[in-house]
Design goal:
Layout lengths: L3 E9 L7 E5 L15 E11 L11 E5 L2
Antiparallel strand pairs: 1-2, 1-3, 3-4
Organism: Marinobacter halodurans
InterPro entries: FN3_dom, FN3_sf, Ig-like_fold
Protein name: Fibronectin type III domain-containing protein
Length: 68
């Protein structure tokens, strides 16, 4: 097993459709801001990627409501 390389943040409008992906290429990054989200409910999860390309299962899905 390799060392931690980075993360993927996956998100979407339903917990079952996390169809947007942001790749974080640094294991030392601990925060990321996603801007310009439309109004409504958004669901997010994270998975880790190691230096050998292995990908963890998704974290628990969390949600955030965006209002205007």
């Amino acid at each position: 097993m390799g060392e931690l390389q980075g993360y993927e943040i996956v998100y979407g409008h339903t917990a079952d459709t996390l169809d947007n992906v942001i790749v974080i290429d640094s294991a030392s990054t601990t925060t990321h801001t996603i801007e310009n989200l439309d109004q409504g409910d958004w669901y997010f999860a994270v998975r880790a990627i190691d230096t050998e390309g292995l990908v963890s299962p998704l974290s628990a899905v969390v949600s955030k409501s965006i209002s205007g």
